[in-house]
Amino acid sequence: MNRKNWNPSHSLLAITALLASVGTANAQLQLQAPDGIRKYNPNRVALLRWYDANVSGTPVAVGNDPFSAAFDGDHVWVTNQDDDTVSKVRASDAAVLGTFTVGDFPNQVAFDGVHLWVVNQGSRTLSKLRASDGSLLTTVNLDFGAYGVTFDGTHVWVSNEHADNLMRIRPSDGSILQTVLMGTGNRPRGIAFDGEYLWVALFGTGRVAQVRVSDGTYLGNVVVGSNPREMAFDGTHVWVSNSGDDTVSRIRVSDATLVGTYPVGDEPRSVVFDGASIWVANRLGKSVTKLRARDGLDQGTFSPGDGQLGGLVFDGANIWVTDRTNGAIIKM
C-alpha cells in the first residue's frame, strides 16, 4: 500500500496524460520493490484506488499466537509464541518457506542485515538465526522479563522488562557488553533507534526514555500516555503506542519534546512507518489505524480480519499484521 514514490501534488490530469502517452502498457509502469514485489501502478493512482485496504487482506497461516514480525529485504519473519518457533514467509508471493525452533515464548524479533535476533520471553534468552537458512547460531542468556530488541548498526539491544534494564550485545559472539539500568518499576518494553539515540517505552510509568547509543547513558524521559508499548521512528519523530488509553504519542527527537497525542483503536500495540504514514495495530479493536506522519491526521481505520492483532511490519510495498487469534499473518 505504499505510494510514496508518487507526489500527492500531481494532478489527476497530469497522471492521465502520462497514461495516455504510454498507451495500455500499464505493466511497464509498475514500480518494483525488493524481490519483485509490485506496487500500485499510475493507473491505480489516477483512479483514486485508495479503498483496497478496507477489504480483508490475504491471510497466511503460520504458527499459534503469532506475535511480532520483521522484514529482511525479501522475507517476513514471524514469532509464534505458543509454538516456540519463527516462520519465514516470502514477501513477494506469501509462500511459507520454513518454520524454525527458537526459545520459549518468542516475543520481539529484529534483523541486523544478516541475522535474525529473537527475544524468548519464557526462557529469558536471545536466539540468533541465519536469515538465509534459519539455522540457529547462538543463544544468549538474558534477564527477567526479556521483551524488546533492536539493532543500531553495530550492536543489538534488548529490553528486560522486569529487570528494568537494557543490554548491549555484540552480534559476532553474543557477548553482553553493557547493562543500562532504567529505574525500578519503569518496565522497559519496545525500543526504537533514531541513528544516535535509543528510545524505550517505559510501560510502568507512562514515559519514553532516551538513551545515548555511543555510551549507554540514560539521558531522561518524556511523559506520553498510559502503558506505552511499541515504538517506530519516522526520520524526525518517534511514535509510541499507549495501550492503556488507546492513543499514540509523537516525540520530536531533536529536542525530546512531545508534539502530539492521537486517538487510535482499542489497545494499540505495534507501530510501523511506511515512508509516509504511521500504522498502528489495535489488538482488541481488531483493526489497523493509519495516521499521516507529518501531522497525525487520521487517514482511516481498517479491519483486515476478525482476530486480535499483534505485530506490524512494512516490506517496501505492503503492510503485514499478525492475526494472533487465527494463527496467521495478513498481507494488506
How would you characterize the overall build of this protein?
With 332 residues, the chain is mainly beta. It has three helices and 28 strands. Strands 1-28-27-26 form a four-stranded antiparallel sheet, with no helix packed on it. It has a four-stranded antiparallel sheet with strand order 2-3-4-5, with no helix packed on it. The protein has a four-stranded antiparallel sheet with strand order 6-7-8-9, with no helix packed on it. The protein is globular, with a radius of gyration of 20 Å.
Task: Give a quick precis of the structure.
This protein has about 325 residues and is mainly beta. It has three helices and 28 strands.
Biggest beta sheet attributes: 4 strands, antiparallel
Structural class: mainly beta
Number of helices: 3
What percent of residues adopt helix (DSSP H or I)?
A: under 10%
Distance between the termini: 7 Å
